[in-house]
């Protein structure tokens, strides 16, 4: 496992290389978190030539501002043109829990988020994406994925995960960390 000195987007290129190599060697799909599409566009450039299936996961509409989507439509078209798929959905650990937190100051989802962040921010997002792609039927629960996420923008975490739907969140298994930040 590669451990980065610092968290953040400076690790994106190396994280994607590690993740695509692992996905290709293991014949696993690659699931990449991407807010605006930059990380997903970089991933498809590496994944497409080696036959790795890419699913980019973006925030839901209204994540930052009601009615708006952060993922760049041009990047979405580029990813799809190269055989990738962009899934837009609500993070399982954000939805209603965020509304409760804003009104009441806390929620069960926040407890799970905090527990996953013990490993790193990217680990939390990798687990959420594993639930999201299973919820959408894009991955079956009998197939591992290589999940990529990060701290802020970019990528600094890659792991092999066994997805499950969000109603079975605690059955998701992080099988192996391929890389992650040591300090975050």
Notable features of this structure?
single chain, 184 residues, alpha/beta, Pyruvate Kinase, Chain: A, domain 1, seven-stranded mixed β-sheet, 7 strands, 37% helix, 20% strand
Walk me through what this model shows.
The protein has one domain (2-181): Pyruvate Kinase, Chain: A, domain 1. The chain is of the alpha/beta class. The protein has six helices and seven strands. Helix 1 (12-26) packs across helix 2 and helix 5 (108-116) crosses helix 6 (121-135). It has helices spanning 12-26, 38-47, 73-81, 95-104, 108-116, 121-135, and strands at residues 2-4, 30-33, 54-58, 85-88, 145-149, 157-162, 173-181. Strands 1-7-6-5-2-3-4 form a seven-stranded mixed β-sheet, with helices on both faces. The model has no long low-confidence stretch (mean pLDDT 89).
Helix content: 25-40%
How much strand?
15-25%
Largest sheet: 7 strands, mixed
Output the structural class. Answer: alpha/beta
Number of helices: 6
CATH structural fold name: Pyruvate Kinase, Chain: A, domain 1
At CATH level 2, the architecture is 3-Layer(aba) Sandwich
CATH hierarchy class name:
Alpha Beta
Radius of gyration, taken over Cα atoms and rounded to an integer in Å: 15 Å
- Taken together, the total number of domains comes to 1
Order of helices and strands: EHEHEHEHHHEEE
Q: What would the principal axes of the Cα set say about the shape?
A: globular
User: Which residue ranges are poorly predicted, with pLDDT under 50 across at least 5 consecutive positions?
Assistant: none
Order of strands in the sheet with the most strands? Answer: 1-7-6-5-2-3-4
N-to-C span = 17 Å
Q: Please tally the β strands and state the result.
A: 7
């Amino acid at each position: 496992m590669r451990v980065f000195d610092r968290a953040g987007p400076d690790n994106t290129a190396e994280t994607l290389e590690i993740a695509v190599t692992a996905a290709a060697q293991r014949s696993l799909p690659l699931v990449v978190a991407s807010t605006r599409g930059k990380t997903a566009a970089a991933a498809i450039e590496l994944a497409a030539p080696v036959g790795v299936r890419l699913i980019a996961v973006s925030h839901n509409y209204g994540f930052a501002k009601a009615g708006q989507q952060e993922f760049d439509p041009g990047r979405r078209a580029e990813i799809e043109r190269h055989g990738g798929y962009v899934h837009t959905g609500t993070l399982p650990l954000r939805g209603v829990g965020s509304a409760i937190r804003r009104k009441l100051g806390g929620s069960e989802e926040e407890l799970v988020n905090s527990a996953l962040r013990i490993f790193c921010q990217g680990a939390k997002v990798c687990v959420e994406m594993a639930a999201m792609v299973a919820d959408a039927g894009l991955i079956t629960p009998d197939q591992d994925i290589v999940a990529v996420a990060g701290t802020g923008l970019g990528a600094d975490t890659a792991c092999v995960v066994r997805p499950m739907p969000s109603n079975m969140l605690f059955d998701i298994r992080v099988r192996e960390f391929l890389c992650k930040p040591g300090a975050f």
